[in-house]
Write a structure and sequence with these properties.
alpha/beta; 38% helix
Length: 320
């Protein structure tokens, strides 16, 4: 089996997760593991699986999960994108890994991709069970949404407040698209930006489509995102070693600039790598580009997750 399905307890509901274990995994020994934090709107079978399977093939255990309220995970209301809950999801995933026989709870790292990179960094600041932080085309969702607000973020928050009042009065929750559903819809809306069209090609065609990824976001999510700062207090709190992987073609997502900002802020930056020729969304599934990122990340994780805890395996002490 390429991976195991797990249900991770998260209060009143469970997170759906997949655990990728290398062929040489032996519960009698201590192993390092990496938690995957995935892009906004994606599910575990998409980008996270592309990276988790390669980490496994390189000898590292990897855990990828659907966020609360999305995919196959529980949680109501559906399609909520709450940056703070996304961070809590990561910590619950670490809880689950701690109890897996053969996983050393002191050798757990994280890999965050796109918005998941921002969530990974934000969580690692305060959850120091994370011993090494890797990012690929990391994005600060709050900064991105504030930049997209045509009349500024404060005006956007006023509009969202009015919209939520209408929802309460009408008894209906509004959902919005992450992306146009089709390339034809994008063309009709006059959208020609290469990053947006590549995102649609990935998420909304057979190339990367999953029936569990709805392409819808609960509208009340946006006020939470607008006030979010993924890199707040990084200079003081993100003491773990950091590896940053960027796409060489900057494009309109801002992930190149955000990644460089993170690199400059971090107190313990270890490795910065630019995948030349790649665009943001090409880092999701183009084998050449993913393989180049993984080839850089695996040595980083091996070095910084290398020290086993004597006598302890999977959260349990061994006799003798």
């Amino acid at each position: 089996m390429s991976h195991q399905h797990l249900s991770i307890p998260r209060g009143p509901f469970d997170l759906a997760a997949d655990l990728y274990l290398p062929d040489a995994f032996d519960t009698a020994h201590s192993h390092a593991a990496v938690v995957l934090s995935t892009p906004g709107s994606s599910v575990k079978e998409q980008i996270g699986a592309n990276y988790a399977s390669r980490l496994r093939d390189s000898g590292l255990a990897a855990l990828v999960f659907d966020p609360a309220h999305q995919g196959r995970s529980g949680g109501e209301p559906r399609d909520l994108e709450d940056p703070y809950r996304r961070g809590e999801d990561i910590s619950y995933a670490i809880d689950a890994l701690t109890l897996v026989p053969g996983i050393d709870p002191d050798r757990i790292g994280i890999l965050g991709i796109c918005a998941g990179g921002g969530y990974a960094v934000h969580t690692a600041r305060t959850d120091h069970r994370i011993k090494a932080v890797g990012t690929v085309v990391a994005a600060d969702m709050g900064a991105a949404f504030r930049g997209f607000a045509p009349n500024g973020p404060a005006a956007a928050l006023d509009e969202l407040a009015e919209a939520r009042t209408r929802e309460v009065l009408d008894g209906q929750r509004n959902r919005v698209n992450w992306l146009p559903d089709t390339l034809e819809d994008a063309a009709a809306a006059g959208i020609t930006d290469i990053d947006t069209t590549q995102a649609i090609t990935y998420y909304r065609t057979s190339r990367g489509h999953s029936p569990h990824s709805t392409n819808r976001r609960l509208a009340r999510s946006d006020s939470l995102i607008l006030g979010y700062d993924a890199f707040a207090q990084v200079e003081e709190l993100l003491t773990q070693p950091l590896a940053v992987v960027l796409a060489g073609r900057k494009g309109s997502t801002g992930s190149y600039e955000m990644g460089m900002r993170l690199w400059a802020m971090a107190p313990n930056p270890v490795d910065l790598y630019v995948v030349e020729g790649a665009g943001h969304y090409e880092m999701y599934d183009v084998p050449e580009y993913i393989d180049r990122a993984i080839a850089r990340l695996v040595p980083f994780y091996r070095e910084h997750l290398s020290v086993a805890t004597p006598g302890r395996v999977g959260g349990h002490w061994r006799n003798g």
